[in-house]
Amino acid sequence: MTLDVTDLQKTYPTGDEALKGVDLSIGGSETTAMIGPSGAGKSTFIRCINRLTEPTEGSIELDGTDLTALDDDGLREARRDIGMIFQEYNLVERLTVMENVLTGRLGYVSGWQAFRRSFPPDDVERAYEILERVGLGDMENKRVDELSGGQRQRVGIARAVIQQPTILLVDEPTSSLDPETSNTVMRLLTEIAAEREIPVLINIHEVDLATEYADRIVGLHDGEVVFDGPPDDLRDGALDRVYRGGDGDDTSESASVTDSASPDTAVPADGVVSADGRTPDRSASGGS
Ligand SMILES: Nc1ncnc2c1ncn2[C@@H]1O[C@H](COP(=O)(O)OP(=O)(O)OP(=O)(O)O)[C@@H](O)[C@H]1O
What we know:
Number of helices: 10
CATH architecture of the domain at 2-81 and 165-265: 3-Layer(aba) Sandwich
CATH class of the domain at 2-81 and 165-265: Alpha Beta
Bound molecules: adenosine-5'-triphosphate
CATH topology of the domain at 2-81 and 165-265: Rossmann fold
Strand order of the largest sheet: 6-7-8-3-9-10
């Protein structure tokens, strides 16, 4: 599977130019992390890919099919191939874990079956397998409003995976989670990408998680890609380009953003950046 995005632009009706011509190709079973400060356009980019947000210009080709040219039926079909995982989980709170996971199959059953929420036995069997895989093997009958943040995110992952997508798009999966749970979720996402041989694109605030788990980092600043490369190349100069729009001279030893950044974009000594300026609270608890 390959996703080829060319010259993607998005200008909101408010006049905000969220994307100013982004080119990006991803494929294989590569994990790509998209980093950038708040407002850089990360969420807009991911939402444009499956047209939850309509792009203004550009093309988005999934295995050669231009998603921007599809009508409603075509888009519905194409979306089956795109697994989405959201920051706030987007689960149905009053339904059980199993019911939430099976909603990932709604695109495959008839309208009547969907209305009755009646799913083929194969789907149910696969749901059990996937719940086991994400570590929720004994929780299928729990209501999701009884779960911790980390458990909810695993339900979100299971719901995306049961679609049998050819790509996973993940929008800030860890921003409501404590550091340990964030690591678990990132590990799970990269393992699933490898096992299923599908690419995964993850928007993420924490640079340390991005560099630890991703094969490739894409840095957005003000709607433009200003860095695209392996985690090892993400030195101070590159971080400066991404978070401050600087020239990003990596040859200068004094280019450390730790020394020069304004408080709202400072990179702490451990390299952890919260793009909205918050240093993640490592003592915060979010459950696992
Ligand atoms: N629905 C909308 N209407 C108008 N402007 C919007 C809308 N959504 C986003 N924007 C603007 O588009 C720009 C990019 O926003 P976006 O949410 O994509 O950035 P982001 O990098 O995901 O930020 P964050 O890390 O805070 O989630 C911002 O200037 C934002 O104000």
